[in-house]
Amino acid sequence: MAAACASEPETIADEAEDIPSEFTVPVPGLEISLVEPGAEPRQTLAPSLSVGDSHSTVVTVRSELFQQLGDDPESDFGLPPVTLPLDTEVEAADGGEWSVALTLGRPESPDNVVNSALAAAEGSSAGMTIRADGSVSELRISPNAESSDIARSAVEQALFQAVYGMIAFPQEPVGEGAQWTIDQPIESQMEIVQRTTVTVREMSGTTLLLDLAVEQRPRLPYLDVPGEGRVAVDEFTGEGTGSLRVDLERPLPTEGGFEMYGTQQYSDPDTGYVVRQRTSMATEWDSP
After folding, report:
1. Cys-Cys with 179: which of 32, 35, 103, 249 at CB 3.0–4.6 Å?
2. Beta strand residue intervals within 155-228, DSSP E
3. The model's pTM
4. b/e for 37-71, b at 16 or more Cβ within 10 A?
5. pLDDT tens per residue, range 40-99
6. Domains, the chain, ordered by start
7. Rg (Cα) of the chain, in Å, rounded?
8. How far apart, in whole angstroms, are the C-alpha atoms of residue 224 and residue 243?
């Protein structure tokens, strides 16, 4: 029951030997709804990537999970912060989509065990396909063969968290003050929808400063746990705020970030057994 309640993306595999040299993970589609077009002048926002362009970006992610089973003391199942230097190159453009290659620099973590394991992940490859609206349709990961399971898992979770923080744009022209919502399912062991409300604070050429408000909610009031049956979702909150600076000529945000906090409670209707959780996530971007 406890293992199925976490709201973070599932790992691809638990053992390093089960992971192929390269694998592709589809990212669920999303819905974009314009709320307010903003002031004149307005323009249609969309990525404007050029094949062959390369950039450097650094993303730092943090994910915390504190869990209490019944009357037991609360336990910490969170992941230590991980900083990933990423070199990007736009490899191809096809039908309004772009294929972007990612090469990892030396990942780092304040956790000594994780940081030591991450050394072997340097030089690992990844990639993503970006749609015409800025959303990511798939994530490709090619970990170094020397990477341990700890390193693979840390890098994978960091890349997933980064992808779910990308911004998609409406089809309609917008100006400063414009606002739209992005509804996206989160791939996890329960059906969660993440709504991001985006507000344009500033527009200057291809550069945008965007304010974000994020909310997560479950689709259903229950959760089916394999081998355990159905448990009730008694409480589920998840919300956060932040801001991002985006350059339409670059595939990844250049600055900013956001934080999310949440509480969850699940119970077994037959036994009354309760699981409580406190969660938080943070993603930060920077360009050297």
Report:
1. 35
2. 179-186, 192-204, 207-218, 222-225
3. 0.87
4. bbeeeeeebbbebeeeeebebbbbbbbbbebbeee
5. 999 999 999 999 999 999 999 999 999 999 999 999 998 899 999 999 999 999 888 999
6. 28-286 (2.30.230)
7. 19
8. 35
